[in-house]
Design brief:
Elements lengths: L1 H8 L15 H15 L8 H77 L9 E2 L4 E4 L3 E7 L9 E5 L3 E6 L6 E4 L10 E5 L3 E7 L26 H6 L2 H18 L5 H16 L12
Antiparallel strand pairs: 1-2, 2-3, 3-8, 4-5, 5-6, 7-8
């Protein structure tokens, strides 16, 4: 009989089928407690209320901890990503685009861009060699106001039939047939191809003579890509100047002076002469009003 009574007391397990409605959590809790009351003696315990309260409190604590973790994750992203974006998009854009654009265009750009450019130009230029050009590993070049010379050392015994030398108005190509050219590039300024020559000196040097088209300006480089020389330090040899007649020598010196003035952004000798004439004219006519006058 005892076995039978125990079998009667052992009731089959009834599944809990209540669905959870997020809008009515208390209704779900009531159904859960009703199920527990029907299927067990838990609610009859003296400590049932305390245990349920402790369970609810623990559930609230877990919920708060979960919310804190979510807030920490969210707060990290806005602080590092979202907020900086808002600050950079709103405040910094207004400060970098509206205000600094006016100030930077007026002040910072000339001071930070133009001056460094001038310094770079000065530091990039090189003192020319004795021939007013530069010496490189495979060739060298020099110049005077009328001509440019290029010298390319070659193996002893080299003959002209092994050499290729093409001289065009704006370009030159020198090398050995069937090999990569030694020089291949554009001139600083055009030349007169019909007045240019080349030959092999002592079967060990390719000598090229180029006639400048503009014979009033010094070249900063021979072939594009070379370092630039400081043309302000270019001077004709004194002996050559001494061989010239006074009129020609004066013309050469004038061209040299004008070239230096142009490079420094200063008026040439002709412009200075015109300014002097204008000053004298204005001094001779003090009663004339030159405030609205335009001078060419």
């Amino acid at each position: 009989m005892a076995i039978i009574s125990e079998m009667e007391e052992a009731k089959p397990m009834v599944p809990f089928t209540a669905s959870f409605d997020p809008s009515n959590p208390l209704g779900f809790l009531e159904k859960a407690l009703d199920f527990i009351g029907k299927e067990s003696n838990f609610l009859k315990k003296d400590t049932a209320e305390k245990e349920i309260s402790a369970a609810v409190k623990a559930a609230k604590d877990r919920l708060r901890e979960a919310e804190k973790k979510k807030l920490e994750k969210v707060s990290v992203k806005p602080m590092e990503v979202e907020k900086p974006k808002k600050e950079t998009l709103k405040p910094t854009e207004s400060m970098e685009v509206e205000k600094p654009n006016k100030e930077s265009l007026a002040l910072s750009e000339p001071m930070e861009l133009e001056k460094p450019k001038e310094e770079k130009k000065e530091s990039a230029t090189i003192v020319p060699n004795k021939g007013n050009g530069l010496d490189f590993e495979k060739y060298s070049w020099g110049q005077n106001l009328q001509e440019v010379t290029i010298n390319v050392p070659v193996p002893a015994g080299t003959k002209s039939r092994f050499v290729t030398c093409e001289i065009k108005k704006n370009r030159i190509k020198i090398g050995f047939k069937g090999q990569e050219p030694i020089i291949d590039g554009e001139f600083f300024h055009p030349v007169k191809p019909d007045d240019c020559f080349w030959n092999i000196e002592d079967q060990k040097m390719i000598a090229v003579l180029l006639t400048k088209q503009d014979q009033m300006e010094w070249w900063k480089y021979c072939v594009k890509g070379e370092p630039e020389i400081d043309t302000q330090k270019v001077e004709p040899e004194s002996s050559k100047l001494g061989d010239l007649d006074p009129e020609t020598r004066a013309t050469v010196e004038k061209m040299m002076f004008d070239q230096r003035q142009k490079q420094m952004g200063l008026p040439t000798s002709d412009e200075m002469e015109k300014q002097d004439m204008l000053k004298k004219f204005m001094a001779q006519n003090p009663n004339m009003d030159f405030s609205n006058a335009k001078f060419n």
